[in-house]
Write a structure and sequence with these properties.
By secondary structure, the chain is an alpha+beta fold. It contains 12 helices and 17 strands. The chain binds ligand EPS.
């Protein structure tokens, strides 16, 4: 059951990208400025290709917002591709050698394309500009309830920030977000950032590409989003699916994820204690999700991005036009997309959380949602009256 849904359309070198987001409540203050702020973040990052010098992404809101507030109707956003003028009146050279790891070959097999640029144009990560714009709208909704989403790069190639315990204190994450945003590789540790920059430089010299890991956290998410009762409403599943849909993402983790497999159960979970009547944990190995439901701690999602398939140094391939072995052609691309992927992962996390929040609170307007948010049950003894009495299943009573 989803309350929000979105669709994107557009080719990388077509006139524009289009996004439609449906399900936002009425009454949310929204304008291009907040969206453009996120779009500018997506354009910034060391290792970006030359395309980002051509574009100046700007969101045109053309439906669903009147006098600066959402009406409850579907939102339409367009982002112009400034590069289109360079392609519009040109004869496009044939593309018949697929890049290993890209959608070139798979797209042609599936759709019967007779030129691989048909695959490229839609498979390009240019599409993520629309997702970031849609994520910005979702962030605006979450912000009304004090929820923030941010992220940073934890590893690039073999260079990584030393992984410790996942923090439970939102302030630790907020500090990381700010520090990461202050450098061009979006790493919260300046010394590691310098090594990451060296790594990207070496990659460019080697005419290669470099992957890495992005960690995104959502702060002040109330407990109770998602559900343990249906597989498709589990919050972790929804987050993993949404994040895995991002170009080049080949793995997603929640909390300690794969690392937890190396520990015994007594060390893999978050012991509970009381602070007054509040039930708290001193650790956040669960990454804010237990049983497919948010537990009130920061939600922590990690995305593994493979190195981009388009490498300047050619990889072996096959020319589909001649049926002979051939090196792949170079297409302009990023050398390292990982710093730029931070706002993209944030966008998908924000979308899933905004959806889960709308599902939890219901209603058609922000005014209807607010009192329901204030009345949400929290992890406090007084919110959780127990019968403390034996009972029977009684299915057949
Ligand atoms: C991108 C736009 C694309 C690529 C890149 C990201 O534009 P162009 O193909 O004209 O250079 O630079 O896309 C990919 C890395 C990819 O594999 O498709 C963007 O807007 O982020």
């Amino acid at each position: 059951m989803t309350r929000l849904r979105f669709l994107t359309a557009g080719e990388s070198h077509g006139p524009c990208l289009t996004g439609v987001l449906e399900g936002l409540p009425a009454g949310l203050a929204l304008g291009s400025a907040a969206i453009d702020h996120e779009l500018a973040r997506r354009q910034r990052g060391f290792g970006a290709g030359p395309r980002m010098k051509v574009e100046a992404d700007h969101a045109r809101l053309t439906a669903g917002v009147l006098a600066g507030r959402t009406t409850g109707a579907p939102l339409a956003i367009t982002i112009e591709n400034l590069d289109h003028v360079a392609w519009r009146d040109r004869d496009i050279p044939p593309m018949t050698v697929p890049r290993p790891g890209h959608a070139d070959l798979a797209g042609a097999v599936k759709y019967g394309y007779r030129d691989l640029r048909r695959s490229l144009e839609r498979a390009s990560a240019r599409e993520t500009a629309t997702r970031v714009a849609i994520g910005a709208c979702c962030k605006a909704l979450l912000g009304e309830f004090g929820i923030t989403v941010g992220g940073y790069v934890t590893s690039l190639g073999t260079v990584h920030v030393v992984a410790g315990e996942t923090p439970v204190d939102p302030a630790v994450f907020a500090d990381r977000f700010a520090r990461a945003e202050a450098n061009d590789v979006r790493c919260c540790d300046e010394a590691v950032a310098a090594r990451m920059r060296d790594g990207i430089q070496a990659t460019i010299r080697a005419r290669d590409t470099l992957g890495g890991i992005v960690e995104v956290a959502a702060l002040h998410v109330p407990p109770g989003l998602g559900s343990h009762v249906h597989w498709d409403r589990r919050l972790g599943a929804r987050l993993c699916g949404a994040v895995a849909s991002i170009h080049a993402v080949k793995g997603v983790e929640i909390g300690h994820g794969f690392q937890a497999t190396q520990l015994p159960g007594t060390q893999a979970h978050d012991a509970l204690h009381l602070e007054g009547t509040a039930i708290r944990s001193r650790s956040n190995r669960a990454g804010g999700i237990e049983g497919g439901i948010s537990n009130g701690a920061p939600i922590v999602v990690r995305a593994a991005l493979k190195p981009i398939a388009t490498t300047l140094a050619p990889q072996a391939s096959v020319d589909l036009a001649t049926g002979a072995p051939a090196p792949m052609n170079y297409e302009r691309s990023d050398f390292c997309q990982v710093p730029r992927a931070v706002p993209i992962v944030e966008a998908m996390v924000a979308f899933v959380l905004a959806d889960a929040l709308c599902e939890k609170l219901g209603g058609d307007s922000l005014d209807e949602m607010r009192p329901r948010f204030d009345a949400l049950r929290r992890c406090r003894i007084e919110d959780l009256p127990m019968d403390a009495a034996a009972w029977r299943f009684g299915y057949e009573a």
